[in-house]
Amino acid sequence: MHKTNWDDFRFVLAVARMGSVSAAARELGVNHATVLRRVAGIEDRLGVALFEKSVRGYDVAPEKLRLIEAAREVEIAVKAVERLAQAGDTPLAGVIRVMSSDTFCHAILPPVVAGMSLTSPGLSFELLCANAQTDASRLHADVIVRTAFKLPDDLYGEVAGQLAFGVYAAEGVPEAHWLGMSGLLGRAHVAHKLNERLQKDGVVFRAAADSFMTLRALAEAGLGRTMLPCVIGDQSPVLQRVHAPIDIAPMPIYVASNAELADAPRLRQARARMTAALQADAERLLGLAPAAA
């Protein structure tokens, strides 16, 4: 096997990061043909195909995840050496792709990533908002933040706190007027229990949605009562917490990564810092912070 120059991996990582040859070429400031040639060259030297080509673009082949992550660690190390030569500092740096639900992306994660960015100027984030449990194994995400009683086998992570729920309504909304949870949201344990209880009581939902953010907007419009994470219900200047017909237990919040990549140093460090930030926000996540005026 011929020796591989680090510069060759820049082209591979750009394609993995951007998802297409054209986008990688724009990021690197070269033409489309150059990227194709450099990627093909490194695949020939390694004797492996790094990408699967589809209508969506270029996806990293699942069995090559470790190879790509190793290259990304080298990229971080090279940049760290450059910073050491200039300033003697080696902070967490690079792009961290964080996948979570719209609730977390809107109401919980922005101050977390802002705080991390302040202490690590070389760090940037891409928030991937997906209420469905999208496959994270194809380098769609470095860190996954989600509520669950237990992580699936393909994820490894730590519990960073608990997310409390409550029932909310605008002033004057009748007790019999409710909003339902549909789609994947309706299959969640707590949502299923609430929907089951309300249907037994003969409640006909006036509207339904598969997103807590959408349910909050519908409740603010006066359509009915709804269950919400307290962290978004308490933020509303229109809604107030009302009696819940069932006991709603808090859900564990996990900060996780793909199990095959979880030991990568930069991912361990990113998860640890995000976990610490969420733990510091425990009061608000549990619905114990003062409600909006």
TrEMBL record:
GO terms for molecular function: DNA-binding transcription factor activity; sequence-specific DNA binding. Pfam families: HTH_1, LysR_substrate. GO terms for biological process: DNA-templated transcription. It comes from the Bacteria. The keyword 4Fe-4S does not apply. Keywords: DNA-binding, Transcription, Transcription regulation. PANTHER family: HTH-TYPE TRANSCRIPTIONAL REGULATOR, TRANSCRIPTIONAL REGULATORY PROTEIN. Belongs to the LysR transcriptional regulatory family. This is Transcriptional regulator, LysR family.
